[in-house]
Design goal:
Layout (H helix, E strand, L loop, with lengths): L2 H16 L5 H9 L5 H16 L1 H9 L9 H16 L4 H14 L6 H13 L8 H5 L3 H10 L4 H8 L5 E5 L9 E3 L6 E4 L8 H4 L3 E3 L2 H10 L6 E5 L5 H9 L4 E6 L2 H13 L5 E4 L5 H4 L5 E7 L14 H4 L4 H16 L3 E11 L8 H10 L3 E4 L7 E2 L4 E3 L9 E8 L2
Parallel strand pairs: 5-6, 5-8, 6-7, 8-9
Antiparallel strand pairs: 1-3, 1-4, 2-3, 9-13, 10-13, 11-12, 12-13
Helix pairs in contact: 1-2, 1-3, 1-5, 1-6, 3-5, 4-5, 5-6, 5-7, 6-7, 9-10, 12-13, 17-18
Amino acid sequence: MSKQTIRSLAAQINYDVIYKKINLTSAFKQRLGSQQQKESISAVKALSFATIRHYLLLEDIWLQFVDKRPKDKLVRVILSQGLAEYKYLNKPAHVAVNETLNTAKKLNKKWACGLINSSLRKAIECTNYQVNNDSAMYSHPQWWIDLIKSDWPKYWQQILLANNQKPPLWIRSQKKLSQNQTHENHSSIDCAYKILAQDITQFDGFSKGEISVQDASAQLAALIMNPQDNQRILDACAAPGGKTCHLLEKNSRINLDAIELYSNRAKKIHENLQRLNLDAHVIVANASHTEEWFTGKQYDQVLLDVPCSASGIVRRHPDIKFLRQPDDLIQIKKDQLYLLSKIAPIIKNGGKLLYATCSIFKQENCDQIKLFLETHPQFKEIKLNYPFAINCELGIQILTGTEDMDGFYYCYLEKND
């Protein structure tokens, strides 16, 4: 794949995400297929991630050097992408400008080359441009910024800045790794290691099933639950199976059911179980439709990692900022509360429920648990305390970027009828 084709594909993918509201994974799949070389795919993805991650700032900068915003949305994307190459991928100014002009020509936007050449050169040369608003400065929709400011007034800037960083590669290893130049040990989670070289294949343990890719904040689930011999455990909404496998790594002498709604995602659970030589009962079903799959034998513990806004993993999925809308939270919260209410009866007396989200929005987290407890007084919170997490009124919150982790929420409940 030529360098110019890489830029053209990236521009089309960015357009798909920003203006057609196609998620980044689907856009990559549609545009790249499976025939491209690994290096070319990596180059396209790097350019797309850099552009989408900082798009609102990039556009705000070059807009200061045009008379009016171009009506052609693909031209806007091409301009922003060219500026991203210069600012975030360290391309020389002349390369960024020339290749952006070539991209415009390849995508039949030759008529816009004069505009692109002039505004991009001025944007690159200017060192004291004025950022017009918070949305541009932090490259997030204003409603998102307002919500984070309200929820986390002391930390909102820290969260937004962390969202725009390239995420690290965390692994989970049951074999203790010594500190060295290729990885860092987590301060509190013994099985979590941050890989500095970004190449997991360098570790012999990966092929042997001793290592899995999993963010440190997600690894906390199995540590909180601490599964005991012969416990009957349910991992609801389980794909791709990281937490399922971690629970079994903690204790293989448990009886674990893993539920996933979609068969293609359930296949990922099977693949991870096989690679790690672990065994679980995988059920393809809607976790909230308990009447269709629940056998009547209640569980000792349930991990309920509910579908959410994913506001804690924006740095891994920057397209979320363009795909998610404020009204989406209304339905998300309804679905979460419904799932909680359906799962509650299948937990035995004395059993435990770990509610988890990869969100930092309080309405999906501690506020949601408040609502649940109002109608389910038989559940009481088990207090959690970790040095890297904020203690909420109910549960704990890991904020995005804390110890370089993803944002995650946990609340551990015990049922006593």
